[in-house]
Amino acid sequence: MNRSKAENIKDKIDGNEVDLSLSNLTEVPVKELPEFCTLTHLIKIDLSKNQIVCLPEEIGRLTNLQHLDLYNNKLKMLPIGFSQLKSLKWLDLKDNPLEPNLAKAAGDCLDEKQCKQCASKVLQHMKLLQEEAEKELERRLLKEREQEKKKEAKLKEKEAREREAQKKKKAEEKERKRKEYQAQMAALAAQEQQKTKREEKKKKAAQNQGKKTMPEPVLKAKRSVCSLIFSLLLKLLLLFIVSISSILAVCQLTELRKEPLCVPLNAHFEQTVKWAQGLDVLQQVIQKMSDLRT
Q1: What is the pTM (predicted TM-score) of this model?
Q2: Distance of alpha carbon 282 from its chain centroid, rounded?
Q3: Where among 126, 141, 156 does a domain terminate?
Q4: Residue 180 falls within a domain, yes or no?
Q5: How far apart are the first and last CA of the chain?
Q6: Range(s) of the domain holding residue 90
Q7: What's the pLDDT tens digit per position in 59-85?
Q8: What is the CATH number of the domain that holds 56?
Q9: Which residues contact 283 (CB under 8 A, 6 or more apart)?
């Protein structure tokens, strides 16, 4: 910052007034004099006949400012903070390339009355702009909040879908494990059943084999018993045959053949002999018995 220029600006401050006209300024000297917009005691500022293209937003801090001369500059618009100059009573904006609405509100400042009207109408215009700006800001903030809500809703929806997908995945995994467990249990049960059947089959086969192949001592014992029984039956049969033969011999060869006991026996014997005559094996026996009778 040019120190001499700043001192020059300070020199132009006279109490509650400052005259910066014809100073070849392109902007309000807030850079050279940062405290310029905090000089709230100022009542009159003359910035006419410069090259100023814009005013700082902080100019609204000069709440006691009553007289502002901006004649013959290059202003097109005024800052929204201009509406805060509530004490402003006089304003000159002639010979500035103002935008149409602002120019219409400013009107002509050819006399004291018109300059006062200019101040009043421009303040009203700037207040409307401020209200519109605030509404626009509110709409923008509302839109941003709505977008943020939509974004949050989408995010929550996405998270909900992800949770649902994760839940479904876990359920499917659990179901898969359950089916695998059931399949394993079924396989084990089948194996156990097959094992049991094999054991029962082996047991039955062993039992059948045991029935077919008796132990040698038992077999010998059975054979011994059978042999004894057969021998006894054979002896009894031989005894019966000998007894019958003896009785027949007595009834055939002795005088007792005419006895009542021997008569039926002899008759049966004769019939038996006739039946056995066709047998080669017995012919010799019968011949011998016939020879004995004679």
Answers
A1: 0.52
A2: 106
A3: 141
A4: no
A5: 188
A6: 3-141
A7: 999 999 999 999 999 999 999 999 999
A8: 3.80.10.10
A9: 277
